[in-house]
Each structure stands twice: as structure tokens, then as C-alpha cells.
Amino acid sequence: MRENLDSLTLLGNQSTRYASDYDPKLLETFDNQHPENEYVVTFDCPEFTTLCPKTGQPDFGHIFISYIPREKMVESKSLKLYLFSFRNHGDFHEDCVNIIMKDLRALMDPRYIEVKGRFMPRGGISIHPFANWGDAEHVGLATLRREQELAAASH
């Protein structure tokens, strides 16, 4: 396990530098120590910030990321810095959620991944985008989770 940690440059680094704009190169992985098991890893980021691409005004949201790992897993400090890199980035909420999902999918090649955003109201409307993906063995789970999100949204 120790040799697996040598590639992590951000964890334990006392001179952390924060990106001033969106940067997926901040993401780092480590080897899954239990690739034979199917289990869920969930991240909860209650302080996600981005900018409205039209007005430049800040948007605040809560991002939830869940995935079933395969061989690689995302390192949490790198994920924190990556999510922080959206702070000065201008994109719609729906775009941010899809970008995060696609970046993490490309990084880790998980069995299944989902990203949900719960954004604070702007003009009296809250937006809660949800994006997910599953490999051939988890496409049913992906469909089921989308159906659950749609059902929850209608209540």
C-alpha cells in the first residue's frame, strides 16, 4: 500500500495551492485495495461554488458524488481542490454536474458513478441536476437511479 501512495502529490502537502479556474488535472487516483468487492464510495461537498456564465454572479450548491470503484479511486484532497477550481468557472449547474461526472469517469473508469447537485435558489428557483452512468453490468442500476430521481422530483 505504501508504494501506492507515492504518486499522490497533494495529500499531506503543506503548501497547497488553489487553482484559480477549473482544472481536471488536479485529480489524482490511488489503487483500489478491494477491486473484487462491489461497494459504494460517496463524497458530500456542501460548499460547492461556481459562477453564472451570463452574469458572473456566484452560485452556491451542494454536490454529492457516489461511485462503485473498479481498479482506481479518486483521492479526496485532490477531489476537494478540483471542486474548488470551479469557484471562478462560469457554467450552468447542469453543465457542472455533467462535467464532474465525465471527468471522474475518465479518471477512474468506475463500474458506476452518479453526481447530484442541490443548488441554492436564484430568482426563487432551486436547480437539482443529476447525472449518472453505468457500465454494461450496471446499466440497470443507472436506469433505476434516474427513475428514482425523477419520481423524487415529482413529489
What does this structure look like?
With 155 residues, the protein is α+β, with helices and mostly antiparallel strands. It has a single domain (20-153), classed as GTP cyclohydrolase I, C-terminal domain/NADPH-dependent 7-cyano-7-deazaguanine reductase, N-terminal domain (GTP Cyclohydrolase I, domain 2), CATH 3.30.1130. 28% of the residues lie in helices and 30% in strands. The chain is built from 4 helices and 7 strands, in the order αββββααβββα. The chain has helices spanning 2-5, 76-84, 93-108, 139-153; strands at 29-31, 41-51, 58-68, 72-74, 112-122, 125-127, 130-134. Strands 2, 3, 5, 6 and 7 form a 5-stranded antiparallel sheet that branches. It has a two-stranded antiparallel ribbon with strand order 1-4. The longest helix is centred in the middle third of the chain and has 16 residues, at 93-108.
Secondary-structure topology with pairs:
Elements: H1 2-5, E1 29-31, E2 41-51, E3 58-68, E4 72-74, H2 76-84, H3 93-108, E5 112-122, E6 125-127, E7 130-134, H4 139-153
Antiparallel strand pairs: 1-4, 2-3, 3-5, 5-6, 5-7
**Counting H and I runs of at least 4 residues, what is the number of helices?**
4
CATH topology group:
GTP Cyclohydrolase I, domain 2
Please give the radius of gyration in angstroms.
Answer: 16 Å
CATH architecture: 2-Layer Sandwich
Shape: flat
> Superfamily at the CATH H level?
GTP cyclohydrolase I, C-terminal domain/NADPH-dependent 7-cyano-7-deazaguanine reductase, N-terminal domain
> Helix and strand string, N-terminal first?
HEEEEHHEEEH
* Structural class by sheet pairing and helices: alpha+beta
pLDDT under 50 segments (min length 5)? none
**Number of E-type strands:** 7
- CATH C-level class is Alpha Beta
Average pLDDT, rounded to a whole number, is 92
Strand content: 25-35%
Reported for the largest beta sheet, the result is: 5 strands, antiparallel
Work out the helicity level. Answer: 25-40%
Report, as a whole number of angstroms, the end-to-end distance: 46 Å
How many domains make up the 3D coordinates? Answer: 1
